[in-house]
Amino acid sequence: MGTRTAIVGVGQTHHTSKRKDVNGQELISEAVKRALEDAALSLNDIDAIVIGNMDHFEAINNVDGWSVDGSGAFMKPIMKVTTGGSTGGTLGSCAYYHVASGLFDVVMAIGWEKNSESDTQAAISTCADPIVERDFFGGAIGPNAAEYAMYMKQFGAVQEDAALVAVRDHNNALRNPHAHLRKFITVEDVMKSPVLCWPIKLLDSCPRSDGACAVIYASESRAPKITARSAWVHATAVSHDYVYFGDYDWEMMPTLQATVDRVYQRAGITNPLKDVDVMELYLPFSTCGVVWMDHMRMCGAGEAPKLIRKGVFDMNGELPINPSGGVLSTNPIGATGLIRIAEAALQVMGKAEERQVSDVKTAMATAFGSCYWFEATVLRSAKP
Amino acid sequence: MKSKQASEHDELLEISSGEAEHVYHWHCGHYISRFLLGLRNKKTILGIKCSHCGRVYVPPREVCGRCFKTMDEWVDLGSEGSIYAFTVVKLPYIDPNTGNPIKVPRTDVYVKLDGADTCLMHWLDESDEKKITVGARVRAVFKESRRGTIHDIECFTQI
Ligand SMILES: [Zn+2]
């Protein structure tokens, strides 16, 4: 497994719809300063940096070099990674690989996005093949809307099941001072909100946010000297399958299932409901919070609505999902997956303040993007 | 004096990239070219079969990702199939290829053509979600004048 590695500090901006007061580099430095402060480290302690975003949102393609002033990478090794929506998850994995390799002791992952600088749907559409699929893609929303249309037909789930997920995540965000959208909503509000791509409505959908997040990973020799409250990486996994959206198997998403199976196996998780204390999941639409519960082996095929109606994934339920408010309340896309890891780490470190779930020993984070890429990370308070 | 200076410095500017379009020229290669020529010349939808795992892919491509084998067995898939999934798009987002808002409502449909293992994405000529069923039979409607693009198929229609 390589060198044992822990998350020792996290920082994020207060995410919002438009940050005209800062440019990209300045937004990045805000998160970097907060992460350094959280870990009580200085930039001199950072051996290497991994940075990422979805470069078509800002139309700046050399983000690694362009961001040096903000990231603190002046004369340090820095590399850019970008995997679409899952970029933030990949950033966490890459920072982990750097430390686990034994070549670096302290590595910082930075995810950021200024979604407000362009049309989000237009930018995302460029991930679909331009010759045969882009014109039928429906932006980011289209494929997930189609997935839920199919799930409803297959299992008799209804739009209200997804609305319950929207209500859970949006209302959890009320406890998170960093969240972009912080407004109490009801199932009725969700059902009455405008349809974007049927059956996904405005309140079923993630917002577009400006924001950044930084997470510091340290080796087992350095981590205990930095903090007594680390979040140890027990497993990461990633899988990717196809080129075309039409190739994709929606009846049981193979990438999600393979990814969670790998981390469950590596971390010794046999029943996620019982063996994981909290999850921060990349659910870009409330509908994913229904369908993907089946694929993550929380229950049998088609049984997710039953668990959701029972409140199993609520803050006081058996397995709280998204205490932060999740992607439905905050979505600076290149940072979004890394925010999941940061929030899971805060839960393990006992630093999640008002949104803290009690007695968290094991937390899991996922990221999702592209066609169709999944990332997962399992963090624990105990060293592996 | 001091407050005036402060307000001068408080103005936050935004610079737009401009009106110019940056045009791309995408290369289709042998496989997608043959697929598009099938639409243009014969109104047929071509797929390709992996001789190793037997899966039939549409659109055709060189390599079966699962087996990492080169494929060369072309299959004529006809023009009928069933709806695997669909969405009715109501948000007029910007088309990245034109810079203009898309026309809504618009139904994006994933068609499982008879004999194919993957779906072809296209439009359906029905935008009332209550009149569209997952599993319904559909047929491709071809344009009279065809140029060798995916839009040589006008749309799919329920039969
Ligand atoms: Zn094959």
Arithmetic mean pLDDT of chain B: 93
Question: Helical stretch count of chain A?
Answer: 15
Low-confidence stretches of chain A: none
What's the overall geometry of chain B? globular
Largest interface: which pair?
A-B, 46 and 43 residues
The coarse overall form of chain A would be: globular
- Total number of beta strands of chain A: 11
The helix/strand series of chain A, from N terminus to C terminus, equals EHEHHEHEHHHHEEEHEHHEHHHHEE
At CATH level 3, the topology of the largest domain in chain A is: Peroxisomal Thiolase, Chain A, domain 1
Which structural category do the helix and sheet elements of chain A fall into? alpha/beta
Number of domains of chain B: 1
Number of strands of chain B: 10
Separation of the first and last Cα atoms of chain A: 10 Å
Give the amount of beta strand of chain A, in percent: 15-25%
Biggest sheet record of chain B: 5 strands, antiparallel
CATH architecture of the largest domain in chain A: 3-Layer(aba) Sandwich
Which ions and ligands are bound to the chains?
A: zinc ion
Low-confidence stretches of chain B: none
**Quick one: biggest sheet of chain A?**
9 strands, mixed
**Taking strands numbered 1, 2, ... along the chain, how are they ordered across the largest sheet of chain A?**
3-2-4-7-1-8-11-10-9
Task: Give me some keywords for this one.
heterodimer; A: 384 residues; alpha/beta; Peroxisomal Thiolase, Chain A, domain 1; 2 domains; nine-stranded mixed β-sheet; 15 helices; B: 159 residues; three-stranded antiparallel β-sheet; 2 helices; 14% helix; 31% strand; globular; binds zinc ion
